[in-house]
Amino acid sequence: MLLPTSVFCICGFFLFRFIQPPIQGGVKGDITPVELVKKVNQNA
Amino acid sequence: MLEKTMIMYIIFFFFTFLMLWRPKGLNETIPTSIGASLVLALGIVPYSDILAILEIISGASITIISTIIMTIVLESIGFFKWVAHNLVNKTKGSGRLLFLYIIVICFLMTLFFNNDGSILITTPIIIRVLNMIKLKPHQKIAYLLSGAIIATAASAPIAVSNISNLIALKIVGLELNSYVEMMFVPSMIGILTIAILLFLYFKQDIPKKIEYQNIPFDMNEKPIFQHPFSQTSTDKPEYDWTMFKICISIVVLIRVGFFSLTTFGIPLEWIAIVGAVLLIGIRWFRYQKGIRDIIKKTPWHILIFAFSMYVLVYGLKNVGFNTVLFEHLHSLVASSHLNAIAIMGTLLTFLSNIFNNLPAVMIGTLSLTEMNLDIDTLQVAYLANVIGSDIGALLTPVGTLATLLWMFILKKNKIPITWGQYFKVTIMVIPIGLIISLLSLYLWTNWLFF
Predict the structure, then answer these.
(1) Which residues have C-beta within 8 Å of that of residue B237, sequence separation ≥ 6?
(2) pLDDT for B350-366, tens place per residue?
(3) Which residues of B fall below an 8 Å CB-CB distance to A?
């Protein structure tokens, strides 16, 4: 039971890392976060 | 009796051929259920066996259907589009890193969902990614073929990612946790070997630098390939990170639950159903979206498909096909664990590549149960069956339904790959991967378990 549980926890961690969005306001060209999109839409 | 045997062989091979060929996109359930009806009508499988067959296949089918429902919910909230988008942005322009990420994501998709679902989801994701970075056709094949092979082979380490493994598990009565303890390490060694060999084979085709640019995420963007789980429209224009976090946490917890809760006697399918209901409930709570799309997109026919396939295999058993295997193999399989692993792994590779791994693994497992083997030999021989039917089956496209499905998706997306091209790659990769997996299984189980 310990082996499969550890496998899924480790793999789950990697999956999270994979899907994690870039940090808000980070490097040039990063994907625009939701809040930023909303603000832009409000200003438009 | 001889007449009945001939009829059974004809029914089996004809309808299995139709299932694999799928003329004009014919659903695979139709030929198998016609074949099964004939077998039942001719009395080759008596009606009294129907309940017993249903008991064997229902749990596995419900587990797989529930997993697919979870996939449909994730698709509807834009999760997989987000993964495709994020994948390109994370490579930072490296073609080799993209190769690694594609392999990892294919592996994870099978681990957390199932192998056919993984192909249906990851192939459009990879095509989408490759179209974003404008690769040449032979470069696309390097990524697509590697992803498909890893996605299919990844159903070996844990039994819950593949319906045929689940059914066979039930037949031999092996515990889910024991399966993983004995199988995870050997099959992972095999998968790693295959991944390295694929990289070496395609090294020249994988570009060092890819034309990379950050592309804004748009959930309403028209998908490149409209796969069966995809949502045509959605009223949410942005990605919902909170929702992704909650849903993926549930998926991980349900997978962990499969292994921790079954030890308390809770049936696997119940845990899977809870997962599906939880995801549907959370989606309803957040977006007030009902279940109509889920009912429409869920492949409910899987239950009929698994049932009819099993009836066909049971028919073969009833006319003595398994006895032929028994007579020729029993003494060799029973002689030592190494022989059992080598023979069953090779046999299942051979059978899977003739008439697909789903009937092959059922035939192999049923034959094993008739050999009156001691429990240890039965278990290692069964695990070798799984390696043969999950890894060895990748030698030709006929071997697994997932590979046939993959070729169909590629054809629809105008990325042609011939059977010859496919075989040219797999003949260099799969036999070595298979031998290493089987050898690892022997060393691992003998070292720790027997």
Answers:
(1) A37, B218, B219, B220
(2) 999 987 888 888 888 88
(3) 79, 82-83, 85-87, 89-90, 101, 104-105, 108, 111-112, 157-158, 176-177, 180-181, 184, 213-214, 216-217, 237-241, 244-245, 248-249, 251-252, 255-256, 258-260, 263
